[in-house]
Amino acid sequence: MRRFLLYVIIIIGGCKEEYNPPVDNAGYNYLVVEGNIVAGDDSTFIHLTRTIPVDDTSNLKPETDASVQVESENGELYQLQEKENGVYCAPPLNINANSNYRLHIVTRDGKEYASDYVPVKITPPIDSVSWKLDINTGVTIYVTTHDATGNTRYYRWEYAETWEHRSRDSSVLIYDAGLRNVRYRVREEQIYRCWNNDTSSEIQLANTAGLSADLLYEKPLVNMAYGSKKINWIYSIVVKQYALTKEAYEFWDNLKKNTEEQGGIFGPRPFADYGNIHCVTNPSEPVVGYISACSLSQQRIYINWSQVRWPRPFRECEDTTVVSSMIDSVFSTPIYLPITYVFMPPGAVFGSSAECVDCRLNGGGTTVRPPYMP
Fold this sequence. Notes:
Radius of gyration: 26 Å
Distance between the termini: 30 Å
Largest sheet: 17 strands, mixed
Shape: elongated
């Protein structure tokens, strides 16, 4: 989503000198459509938002309560349901690979939008997702793929990362305000292990149009600097591969140049191709996005810290031993957290500074383990 917002901003303001366009905020309120019509065994997700002014520091503006459908030229209809604000989804669609499909949207204010009809591309399987370690450049993750039929040629990738990080100490005790004392934690209250997530923000493309074979070998997707906190314990990445038409590839390639290779306000003048989605109600209204129809190929790998063994520093911690009479006054504040009972003096509790006990305070994330993480 960040890339589409930037794209619109650059189109409006990418000139030779600083320029504040003389338009009111309403001129920025364009519909932004992200996602693909997915064939096969994977769900279809479409994300609808509205563009915002350059100087607006608020969060993205979701387009809610819309009617979103996938339609075929033969009259097939598949309704998507709004899962969360601006995110619409459908279970695996039984679409015909020999038909053409489009996305049809009606917003809650009655405006109608539709993409061009597009063919269904069959995405070849990913051959491998691999990685290499270099002490100077860190870890680089690659994708290798090919299409023996030679029918793909144009590729796009997205990825989602998950990594585990841990606090220095594993706390088995928790302060209970109702008891004004500590008690043992239950499993759901653990704060020792945390998991973070991130998704790709760069546009990842490649093509084999000029090659004799439809083969891409070790296309680099991700680089993590040596010592990255993402591989302090266990790191996972799932790579998603999409086959594109030549027209879709050209759209994404132009968008990539304008969002990642612009070089600031003195960079090359941007292109003005908003995509293949149009406002039926008002044909002059820009709509940002490109809808493709294809199957999805994906592959997940894991990297364990023991495979890289780079430095894994911990914060400096302030440890304390709290006698039983002081447990309420010490641990009722957020400065220290209890860890475990100690043998002497009787009833005393060993604790430490909160950021050394609660993983959420030193790296963020959630304490709920994703089902695909070990």
